[in-house]
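lol ok so funny story. i was supposed to be doing the assay writeup but got distracted and ended up predicting the structure for this chain instead. priorities right. anyway since i did it might as well share w the group, maybe its usefull for someone
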Amino acid sequence: MATARALSVRWRLTAFVYLCCTLYLLFQGGKTAFMLFIILNVLIVYLALGKLSGIGRVKGERRLGGSAVPHNHVLSAGSRLEVELSIRIPGFWPVPYVLVQDTLERTGGQPMVFEVSFIPDFRRTGSVGYSTPPLQRGWYAFRKTECVTRDIFGLFEHRGSIDSVSRFTVLPQTVPIRQWNRVERGLKGPYAHAVSNRFSKETTQINGVREYIYGDRLSRIHWNATAKTGEWKSKEFDRESVPRNVIVLDRCGSAYDNADHFELAVSIAASLVEYGIRRETAMGLVSSGASAEGFLPRSSAEQRQLILNHLVGVQADGAAGLYRSLRQSPLSIPRGSFVVLVTPHSGEEVIRTMEWLERSGNTPCLIHLPGVRLLSEAAGWQRMLTSRGWPVYNVRTLAELPAALEGGGR
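and the output, tada:
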């Protein structure tokens, strides 16, 4: 509305100047009035022909991080994205410069507008680039790119847009974990030296395709893979691990000090998933907030992708405490699992939750996020947990996680 009003004022001002110049020519006459009238007409023709600049039919391509295929672009939280725009303006009318406005939107967040300019070359093309600030976890999309040019006097502007919608994902920030001895002991169990993985019980969940072994049942044959490769292929099923890993992400909003505190919890959960899947162990997730979601433990690459996609958009929108949200979760934790609680809750809330997990036949573990609270305040109830053989780890920053897990915790 404001742009249309300003444009109307400019045209009225131009018409007023033209009227004055015409009256001056009619009543005053002479060479000066005639030359002034001619010059004014030339300028008006130039301004009117500005619509022939071709900016309304502008074309272009966006590249993200040097890739021409933006839909497969995945970043980690805290990373910057390099964006390059290649623009071509059809037509012949001279264009002094082009102002490019690119809009980046984050789901549930405020849009970011980036402005850059360039001077077209003799082929009426140009390239511009910019870098985004460190990006938060979430789903992002680039909307239409607006291209604006003005005449040499800066009176009138002409616009065009490039309909190039690009989407990309920013995953939670993770930190590499080399080894977690307690998980290794929990996964193997006290009698693991007498049991081989090939004799562990298989589930009904397909985990991939393997070569045919003589003696495989006909029901195990993977007919699609056999037809495509021309060789016999058999279905590979997930095997039950003893026990399985389940990460419980606490999404109670009132328990966290701020948004960064919750981001730490999400990053810890994502790091644990990366560690487990990398070591081919079955990983699951329980995430209860405004909506309860969960993933049964599996060790496939698809499981990693499913959990990380969930963690991209998860929010601290839960109202119930840790104990109640876990009890009311529709996903039942498989008996015999190694359950890792990632929570800022403390005291009685955590003790009740871990006691309930143990009664359910699981092995609980706590990764506590103290926030602004002093660790000395947590010494009493944490000492009670460790006396019962439950591992407790205090993590204030993501960089502390590997050292805390590899060191063995309390």
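Residues 186-199 have pLDDT under 50 and may be disordered. The chain is about 30% helix and 30% strand.
back to the writeup now i swear
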